[in-house]
Amino acid sequence: MAKLLEGKPIAEKIKEELKAEVAGMKKKPVLVSIMVGENAGAEAYVKQQKKNAENLSIDYQFQKLGADTSEAALIETIQKMNADSSVNGVIIQMPLPPQIDYKKISQFISPDKDIEGMHPVNIGKIVFGKAKLIPCTAQAVMELLQATGVDLYGKEVVVVGHSEIVGKPLALLLLERFATTTVCHIGTSKAGKLEEHVRRAEVLIVAVGKAGLIKGEWVREGAIVIDVGINRVEDKIVGDVEHEEAFKRASIITPVPGGVGPLTVTMLMRNLIQAAKLQQS
Ligand code: NAD
Predict the structure, then answer these.
(1) CA pseudo-torsion sign 122, 126, 129, 133
(2) Domain extents for the chain?
(3) What distance lies between CA 232 and its chain's CA centroid?
(4) What tens digit of pLDDT does each residue of 132-175 get?
(5) Which stretches of the chain are DSSP H helices?
(6) CATH fold of 27-110, please?
C-alpha cells in the first residue's frame, strides 16, 4: 500500500518561505498576466493565480486583450512590459487564438521576466545546470520528489510525455541529479514498448493527458509515482495512471487532483520573486 503524496502541505510550506522573502523586499513584486480573448478555463486559472499572488503580497496586474488581437500587437504589449522597470514578470495565458503562435511570442518576453521559464535562454540554461527560471510544472515535480526524500542518483526514472513545458525540461533536471532517465512518448507507445519501460521504473512520472494510459499492474512494486495528467472523465478529474491499482503497488503516489497542481502555481510565484531579486541585484 502506498503513501499518498499531497502537494498542498508542501506548497503551504514553500509559500511561508516566499512570504518572508517578499516581506524582506524593498518593493512588492509585480506580475503582469496577459489574456487574449475569452476562455473559461483560463479565467479560472487566472483567479487561482491572483489569489495566490495576493496571499503573498504580490501585485497581480491582469490585462485582457480582444480575441482579434494580432501577433504584432501582442508582441508590442510584451515589449512595453519588458521596458517597464516596475514589472518583474510576465505571463501569457493559454490558450491563444489561432492567429497567435505561442512559441513565437514567448521568445519576445525578456528572459529576466520569463516567469514560466519557457524562453530559449532559460531552457538552454537548464542544460548547463544554471537555470534560475525553470518551467513551473517540471519544478513542481522536482519539489514532490524532494519531499519523498528519494536519492535520485543512479535511480531508474521513467518520464512519460516529452512536451516542452513538462517532459523535456524535467528530463534535464533529472539528469542534473544523475538519475538514469528514460523519456517515453507517443512513439514509445506506437512501438509497443511503453509497458516494458514503465515496469522498470523506480520513479515514474507521467505527463500525457490520457486517463488510464498507465495500467496499475505495470507499476513496479515499491515505485514512486508522480501523476501530472489532468483528465475530465464523467465529471471527475483523474490522472494518467490507474490510481487504485497503482496505489496497491507503489510506495508513494500523488493524488489527482491535489498532487502536482497545488505546487505548479506556487512555483510560478517563486519564479516571479526570483525574477524580481535577479532584476534588483
Ligand atoms: P502535451 O499534449 O504537450 O504532450 C503530451 C505528451 O504525451 C507528448 O510527449 C506525447 O508524445 C505524449 N503522448 C501522447 N499520447 C501518448 C501515448 N499514447 N503514450 C505515450 N505518450 C503519449 O501535454 P502537456 O502540456 O505536457 O500536458 C500533459 C498532461 O499534464 C495534461 O493532462 C495536462 O493537463 C497536465 N498538466 C498538468 C499540470 C499541473 O499543474 N498539474 C501542468 C501542466 C500540464
Answers:
(1) positive
(2) 27-110, 136-260
(3) 19
(4) 999 999 999 999 999 999 999 999 999 999 999 999 999 999 99
(5) 7-23, 40-55, 71-83, 102-106, 120-127, 136-148, 167-176, 186-190, 194-200, 243-249, 261-280
(6) Rossmann fold (3.40.50)
Cell triple for residue 226? 508522480
* Residue bearing the CA closest to ligand 1, atom 13: 186
Residues with CB under 6 A from ligand 1: 137, 160-163, 165-167, 184-186, 188-189, 194, 207-210, 213, 228-231, 260-261, 264
Cell reading at 235 = 465529471
CATH number 3.40.50.720 is the correct assignment for the domain at 136-260: yes
Separation of 207 CA from ligand 1 center, angstroms? 4
pLDDT in tens, 78-97: 999 999 999 999 999 999 99
Cell of 188: 514509445
